[in-house]
Design a protein that fits this description.
With 170 residues, the protein is an alpha/beta fold. The protein has one domain: Collagenase (Catalytic Domain), CATH 3.40.390. The chain has four helices and seven strands. A hairpin with a 5-residue loop joins strand 6 and strand 7. Helix 1 packs across helix 3. It is globular and about 40 Å long. The protein starts with a strand and ends with a helix. 35% of the residues are buried.
Length: 170
């Protein structure tokens, strides 16, 4: 099960559309599981690592994935080559991921891009790495053309995610 938890107020129609795309992409249930607030003491732009650790537990089974969704900015990541924008964060083979819509202009009119970002972060929670197929949602989101792609997986990433899902315990 994929549980979408919002940190801000989102259009219910957008959340319904997003959970439908996630269900189709992963073949497991997806639902909006309510909202929560940002822990006190945290300021925007949020450090995604600290935020994901500080967010409250969500009632879920061990194999469920929890996707936190926010409209607020995440702080850029510091790399040896400089700073890179942070659109979302997930730890590989983990339960939690976060996605920010702050960089999406008029998210209600662009649900495909939101779904693509969410699929990539959730893909990371299932252990998927970035893909070389530009049509795939696992293609690096900092690459040219990423925002024009569809919210789909290539055959390789789809098969790998399905294999990982079959290996779950619940």
């Amino acid at each position: 099960m994929i549980r979408v938890v919002t940190l801000d107020e989102f259009d219910p129609a957008l959340l319904k559309q997003l959970t439908k795309v996630l269900y189709q992409a992963f073949g497991v249930g997806a639902e909006h599981s309510g909202g929560t607030s940002v822990p006190s003491g945290m300021q925007e732009p949020f450090d995604a690592n600290k935020l994901i650790d500080a967010l409250p537990k969500v009632q879920a089974f061990a194999d469920d994935k929890v996707l936190f969704l926010t409209m607020r900015k995440l702080a850029p990541r510091r790399l040896m080559s400089g700073e890179a924008p942070t659109l979302g964060l997930a730890r590989y083979n983990s339960q939690r991921a976060i996605v920010s819509t702050a960089t999406i202009k008029n998210v209600v009119d662009n649900p495909k891009l939101l779904a693509r970002y969410c699929m990539q972060e959730l893909g990371h929670t299932f252990g998927l790495h970035h893909c070389l197929d530009a049509r795939c949602s696992m293609y690096p989101n900092w690459s040219l053309g990423y925002t024009n792609g569809d919210s789909i997986f290539c055959n390789f990433c789809r098969e790998l995610s399905e294999a990982r899902i079959r290996q779950t315990k619940s």
